[in-house]
């Protein structure tokens, strides 16, 4: 198996890059599958020199697609985070950026027939059990990647891909506030643990002596900060129902400060060991949701928008998310717009 090429589509999806496969081409045994995927991506190696991975968690991602097992969905999507420098593959999180490529990939790989103008695909996200609706531009019945939509963190513009989610609260943790409290004190630091699509720990940057303007590189080089964040993460992970998180890519650790550029809040995220160049889709939705909860870390730092549009500032701009609330203020739905681009289509090879 490992000597044979596997059909593979390599997409830039949102602010991430990933390899898209069809499930029937991969071994059904997860251990065999993971061995092949580690080899294809080149892990473990900080440079992923013997594989196609981009030596950064944001470019070391895999999506596995299949016709859906559910009547209310069209496609099953399993997201796998391939650790760069450890032989670990984790399905303990979803990924809203790689999700943006699922619609185009499902059409390109022959799993879905495109409609005449745009095609809406119901995607069953296997990592969480939740459903997303993705609308892809398909003029003349084929995917187009060309368009005028810009997202911060990606040069140029591309065709919009609309993503909508109905009920993603407690996606991995079972509850929006997995510890049962809006704030906890862990290792002397006040935190809010929240999961609206992604398990995230919200922290006030000021508690770490930061003002929120530090660059990704400054954060990466701050080993004292990383040590403190990891200690908090390891303690709160089990409290969030995630078990021992030493080898898990969740919860994400997000430092918050007051917005600087007209957005709702400013963020600096660790995912969980490397600083994010921007912020994940579901992470941004979880942060936006936290900003709506009185008492949560971030509520007092946020500039609260009157409507549904939340600009979540991050180190390379802002992520625009839509948050819908009922009259009591409870978050009922979320969405965003991303773009994607086909970079390569062909066969990927594991080592013999
Ligand atoms: O939160 C990175 C990304 C992500 C995840 C990460 C994501 C999300 O930016 O939905 O997209 O948090 O590991 O692709």
Please describe what this structure looks like.
- The N and C termini lie close together (8 Å).
- The chain is of the alpha+beta class and 352 residues long.
- 16% of the residues lie in helices and 33% in strands.
- The relative contact order is 0.16.
- The protein has 6 helices and 17 strands.
- The protein has helices at 30-41, 96-100, 102-108, 216-221, 223-239, 281-291; strands at residues 5-13, 16-22, 61-67, 75-82, 89-90, 118-125, 130-137, 161-165, 184-186, 189-195, 199-204, 252-257, 265-270, 309-314, 317-325, 331-338, 340-349.
- The site of (1E)-4-oxobut-1-ene-1,2,4-tricarboxylic acid (NQM) has 15 residues, from helix 2 and helix 6.
- The site of (1E)-4-oxobut-1-ene-1,2,4-tricarboxylic acid has 15 residues, from helix 2 and helix 6.
Could you state the CATH homologous superfamily of the largest domain?
Answer: Diaminopimelate Epimerase, Chain A, domain 1
Name of the level-1 CATH class of the largest domain: Alpha Beta
**Topology-level CATH name of the largest domain:** Diaminopimelate Epimerase, Chain A, domain 1
Give the total of domains: 2
CATH architecture of the largest domain: Roll
Distance between the termini: 8 Å
Specify the number of helices.
Answer: 6
């Amino acid at each position: 198996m490992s000597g044979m090429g596997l059909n593979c589509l390599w997409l830039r999806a949102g602010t991430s890059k990933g390899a898209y496969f069809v499930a029937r081409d991969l071994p059904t045994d997860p251990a065999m599958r993971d061995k092949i995927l580690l080899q294809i991506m080149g892990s473990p190696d900080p440079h992923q020199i013997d594989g196609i991975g981009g030596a950064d968690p944001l470019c070391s991602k895999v999506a596995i697609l299949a016709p859906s097992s559910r009547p209310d969905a069209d496609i099953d999507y399993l997201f796998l985070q391939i650790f760069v420098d450890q032989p670990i593959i984790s399905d303990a999180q979803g990924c809203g950026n790689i999700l943006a490529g699922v619609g185009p990939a499902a059409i390109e790989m022959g799993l879905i027939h495109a409609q005449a103008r745009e095609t809406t695909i119901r995607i069953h996200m296997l990592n969480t059990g939740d459903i997303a609706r993705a609308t892809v531009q398909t003029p003349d019945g084929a995917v187009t990647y060309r368009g005028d939509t810009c997202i911060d963190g990606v040069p140029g513009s591309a065709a919009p891909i609309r993503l909508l989610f109905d009920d993603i609260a407690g996606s991995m943790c079972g509850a929006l506030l997995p510890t049962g409290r809006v704030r906890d004190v862990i290792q002397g630091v006040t935190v809010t643990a929240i999961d609206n699509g992604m398990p995230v720990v919200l922290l006030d940057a000021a508690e770490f002596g930061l003002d929120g303007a530090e660059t990704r590189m400054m954060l990466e080089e701050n080993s004292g900060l990383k040590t403190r964040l990891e200690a908090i993460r390891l303690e709160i992970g089990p409290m969030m129902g995630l078990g021992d998180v030493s080898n898990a890519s969740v919860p994400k650790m997000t430092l918050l400060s007051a917005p600087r550029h007209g957005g709702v809040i400013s963020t600096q995220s660790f995912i969980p060991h490397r600083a994010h160049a921007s912020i994940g889709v579901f992470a941004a939705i979880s942060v936006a949701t936290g900003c709506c909860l009185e008492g949560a870390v971030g509520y007092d730092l946020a500039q609260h928008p009157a409507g549904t549009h939340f600009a979540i500032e991050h180190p390379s701009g802002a992520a625009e998310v839509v948050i819908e609330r009922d009259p009591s203020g409870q978050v009922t739905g979320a969405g965003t717009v991303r773009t994607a681009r086909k970079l390569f289509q062909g066969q990927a090879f594991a080592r013999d």
